[in-house]
Amino acid sequence: MTMGKLIFAASLALTCLLSTATVAPAEGPGTEDPNNWPQYNRTSNAWRYSPLDQINKDNVNKLSVAWIAQGGDITMGIQETPLAIDGVIYSITSGNRVAALDAKTGQEIWNYQPKLDPLTKKVLFSPYSRGVAVGDGKVFIGTVDGRGIALDQKTGKEIWQVQLTDFANCHGCNFTSPPVVAGDMLTFGSTAGELATQGKIFGVEAKSGKKVWEFNTIKDDPKSWPGTSGKYGGGGAWMPGTYDAETNTVFYGTGNPGKDFINEDRQGDNLYTDSIVALDPKTGNLKWYRQEIKQDVWDYDSAYEVLLFKKDGKDLIVHMNKSGYVFVLDKNDGSIENIWPVSDLKNFVKDIDKRTGELIGRVELPMNQETLICPSTFGGRSWNSGAYNPNTGLWYNNVLDFCGYLKPVAQKDDPKDYGTGHIGASDFGRLVMAPDGRKPGRLDARDPFTGERKWTHEMDVPGFASVLTTGGGLVFNGDPTGILRAFDADTGKVLWSFNTGSGMRSGIISYAVAGEQYILVPSGWGSYAAILLPPLFPQLEKVPAASTLIAFKLPK
């Protein structure tokens, strides 16, 4: 880094400290640190709610572009949720390229890109990343070749790195999401569900990069994994967890068991796949777990965000898995309070018992035959997070209402066949529209505890971006064709839209600097969705690739 960049970074930090004004007062859970977006889901309760209200229902139609920045390599699009802290944006794009940008102008302050193992060009989950973490004056990333890296927050200079996964020998298991800052520890969750490996969660000292512990999501138990079935049991925790400082617990949702669609050699419960695990971040010790999908054969990971609530004197977790079922749990022991589905388009089971969590009337997959399963392997919702607004009491989620034909076939176990998924099939299913002819997607507003729906917005192409809701009474959502929309959070009325030029598979955020509120949108269609969805949605065949950050604000 040049001396000029160092001086610029230092002066920017001082300017932001002096000039950043709070646009909205902070009151109540989810409203702390209102000007910033300091972690993946903004706050430790994972609500994706910004209390900022300068942009509101009355003026959102006046939004205009403040700045645009390009992220570089467009391979697999842009899937990140950027962070905004004290006037600086921290962004990560393909190839683990990290950049710090001036939040007022989009001008780059510094960038860093690690030299990646050449094997990353062959493995399944590469080269995309979903975000960074920031803490203790450092920017932390998990790399697509299985490393943890810490950078100086002001300069981008590398401070430490540590190899965590056995990248070459575990089917290319790596990190596609940021670590969680849990006090003075970091926790990294690895990919694994479609890999011939055992997925793990790692605990690392934030200051030094020393690995302290690892938690295997494949339980060493012959009742859970008969014979050698657990050797390549999959699992992992490929989305960021939630750290609860009150109980000093990090909660992770885990991935599916392998092979995805074949269970003949794993006739146990396959712990700890498709589960929430509550871990001590200091030691990695398991405090409790709740398995949501026992002996999964439909690729219904539980790797999604873990939301925290206080309601009626209870500490609760709200958590959706890929099946579309939402589990409302006691935060302290994982006991069930309620279970409800985001859609009635489901046939993999008749239902899930709301007291015990047992699957009722499950549908098995006969070998070498197609079976129609709803929802598809994309899930009742994709991995992109929903958003909860404490003012409306509503949780906003993209719902996927289409199905797929699954056909299990015999497959060898080969952890060195890096480009082939360890799934027990030749593909992830032949996608089809719902049998009843309904629209394939919608944005829902629901009570997170009961599932009662207040409003819905139907879509011809379902949404695959994370949702943002704000103190201005708004909900922002993007779709794969590139249309960004602002909705009235109370009614679902569309108040504004903008064509970003490429589809959205990322996280929309809001922040404030120098007394002005911004909406920041990563636009760049990609991921396996871009490869697998066009046969069902021809509208997506010609969506241009991109890796772009677009910031909006109100004109002065």
List keywords for this structure.
2 helices; mainly beta; Quinonprotein alcohol dehydrogenase; single chain; 5-stranded mixed beta sheet; disordered N terminus; 556 residues; signal
Describe the structure.
It is a single chain. With 556 residues, this protein is mainly β. Helices cover 4% and strands 35% of the residues. It has 2 helices and 39 strands. A 5-stranded mixed β-sheet has the order 1-33-34-35-36, with no helix packed on it. The longest helix has 17 residues, at 3-19. The chain starts with a helix and ends with a strand. One of its GO terms (molecular function) is oxidoreductase activity.
Topology overview:
Layout: H1 3-19, E1 49-50, E2 64-70, E3 83-85, E4 88-93, E5 97-102, E6 108-112, E7 133-135, E8 138-142, E9 147-152, E10 158-163, E11 180-182, E12 185-189, E13 198-205, E14 211-216, E15 234-235, E16 242-244, E17 249-253, E18 275-279, E19 286-291, E20 306-311, E21 314-320, E22 325-330, E23 336-341, E24 351-352, E25 359-360, E26 371-373, E27 387-389, E28 394-400, E29 402-406, E30 430-433, E31 441-446, E32 453-459, E33 468-470, E34 474-478, E35 483-488, E36 494-499, E37 509-513, E38 516-523, H2 527-532, E39 548-553
Parallel strand pairs: 1-33, 13-15
Antiparallel strand pairs: 2-39, 3-4, 4-5, 5-6, 7-8, 8-9, 9-10, 11-12, 12-13, 13-14, 16-17, 17-18, 18-19, 20-21, 21-22, 22-23, 24-25, 26-29, 27-28, 28-31, 29-30, 31-32, 33-34, 34-35, 35-36, 37-38, 38-39
GO molecular function, one term: oxidoreductase activity
Cofactor: pyrroloquinoline quinone
Signal peptide: 1-26
